[in-house]
């Protein structure tokens, strides 16, 4: 188990050491002068000067410390991987405190965290996380997919819960170093990948709803297999219940906070009891479609004027600005084969398009699945089939193939540069 260093609450002994450390920092210059005049005292002088660390407003990848695990674990075959259950040998940790700023980044053996029982992440959900992947291509090179977008979103989430700012590019360099160290954990399979989970939590050891005086940024990783077992592009069924909402105007639905996910589990269980796999989240009197489970939502249809259109809910604060979402929008606009729109999607407009035979495909997008087709919606006490699979689904499969080709290096792209 890894516990935080001297400055945190460790009982009376820890308090005494912390008091000594503060005194040493204040008197470091005086001690150096005295010991210099007295001659010698080199060991004591070195200890005092080491204790005097200036406040650091950022951490730097150049200061990364690496402690390798003496007991590497065996790597499971890709076909036996279960999402989020097997973790790599190492993790990245970076500490922050209001008094000292950022400590140096540290790669250490994967282990439990040691948190004060009053840590603000545990009581007030002062925490956030990200999700990204590393892919090994047929050329044996490892690539991250648009990681700078994850880092930017992580910074916005941190601002929302008053966690201290960090340099996203420095964090990305630390993550790259962690992936390089764990490169044998990146599956040698174009149906699997290494999932990367950056996490940022408040560790303030006191009760009270306030910005934390301590924080911990850490990154863990786990190899994951294909989202669709056996390679089958299987559709999901959705439960749409307007009595429950995921996010609301003025809230934090556009941030990747743990507090946005825990309250959705109960309705997810209800959906599964009704034979559905995910929840279609609705919002407001118009019952606007927002997200599908933890995925962004897309609809491909003929507009009333007959023109083909790809439409997805707008970034109005209700939905997460997904990396795959942004990538599909940019890709579709570059193709220029149909209209592309970010705009509100009332449930009645979707039902009307279904009645008129204008809706072709509905699918979700996200880091885990990339693209996930929708086969039907349970709404208003009835099952409403969605003809996604009957239409190929040509567009959903095309998006999936195009993105996979980039992720695994079959199509060269700035979106997925080799490490």
TrEMBL record:
Domain of life: Eukaryota
Co-factor(s): pyridoxal 5'-phosphate
Statement: the UniProt record of this protein carries the keyword Mitochondrion: no
N6-(pyridoxal phosphate)lysine modification, residue list: 256
Enzyme Commission (EC) number: 2.6.1.42
GO biological process: L-leucine biosynthetic process; L-valine biosynthetic process
Enzyme class name: transferase
Catalysed reactions, as listed in the record: L-leucine + 2-oxoglutarate = 4-methyl-2-oxopentanoate + L-glutamate; L-isoleucine + 2-oxoglutarate = (S)-3-methyl-2-oxopentanoate + L-glutamate; L-valine + 2-oxoglutarate = 3-methyl-2-oxobutanoate + L-glutamate
Alphabetic keyword roster: Amino-acid biosynthesis, Aminotransferase, Branched-chain amino acid biosynthesis, Pyridoxal phosphate, Transferase
GO cellular component, as recorded: mitochondrion
Entry GO MF terms: branched-chain-amino-acid transaminase activity
NCBIfam families for the chain: ilvE_II, PRK13357.1
Family per record: Belongs to the class-IV pyridoxal-phosphate-dependent aminotransferase family.
Name recorded for this polypeptide: Branched-chain-amino-acid aminotransferase
